[in-house]
C-alpha cells in the first residue's frame, strides 16, 4: 500500500481467486493505514456463511473502532443466488444514501421474499441449514483434496487457502491451463484458467481454479482422474 487510496475494496475472509484468508496482522495494518490516510474500507464478506472452518477469523468490521469499514455480505452463497438478498453494516447516513442510489438501479427485492427470509432467520432454520451446509462442504473439500493428492501430485495447492470454496492450483511450468481448460471441458470436467486473475501484461499461464460445490460428491475423484489424463497428454 505504498500509494494511498481513498477507498479499499477487500475480501479478507477469502481472497479471490486464491481463497487465502487475510491474517490478523495484515488486518491490523490495513485498519491502521485507513486511519492514518483517512481512507474507507469496503469489506465484502461474500462467503462468510459458507466458511466451514471451526474457528474462522472475525470480520474486519469487528475490529473497526473508527467507523471506517463498510461491511457488506450476502445470503445468496449459502442459500440460493436467486434470492438476491444481502445486507450492509455501516453508518446510518451512509446506508440511507446507499438505499437512495439503489432505487435508481433496482427498487428492492420482492417484499414477500424478504419477509419469508426474516421468518426463516428468526425461527432458527438458517442456523440449522448452515450446520448441514458446513458439514457437506467439509466432506466435499476432503474428497477433492484427497483426489488431488492421489491423481495430481504435480499440481501445487496454494498454502493458506485451506478450507476455501475452491482450490487454486499451480501446474508444472510447461502446462498452459487455458488449453487444459478446453481439453478438460471436452472430457466433461470444468475448471477455471487462472491467467484472467493477474494484472500483469504477460500473466503466468500455469494456474487454475477448481471448485466442488456444484459437483456430485461421488463424481469428484473421477473428475480429477480425467483431468490427470488430460495433463498427461499435454506432457
Draw up the topology in text.
Elements: E1 7-10, H1 24-36, E2 40-44, E3 69-74, E4 86-89, H2 92-105, H3 111-122, H4 125-151, E5 156-157, E6 166-170, H5 177-186, E7 192-193, E8 207-211, H6 220-234
Parallel strand pairs: 1-2, 2-3
Antiparallel strand pairs: 3-4, 5-6, 6-8, 7-8
Helix pairs in contact: 4-6
Task: Outline the structure in words.
The chain is of the alpha/beta class. The protein has 2 domains: 7-123, Type I PLP-dependent aspartate aminotransferase-like (Major domain) (Aspartate Aminotransferase, domain 2, 3-Layer(aba) Sandwich); 127-233, Aspartate Aminotransferase, domain 1 (Alpha-Beta Complex). The chain is built from 6 helices and 8 strands. The chain has helices at residues 24-36, 92-105, 111-122, 125-151, 177-186, 220-234, and strands at 7-10, 40-44, 69-74, 86-89, 156-157, 166-170, 192-193, 207-211. This is GntR family transcriptional regulator. It holds the Pfam family Aminotran_1_2. Residues 17-151 form the Aminotransferase class I/classII large domain.
Question: What is the gist of this entry?
Answer:
With 235 residues, this protein is α/β, with parallel strands linked by helices. The chain is 39% helix and 14% strand.
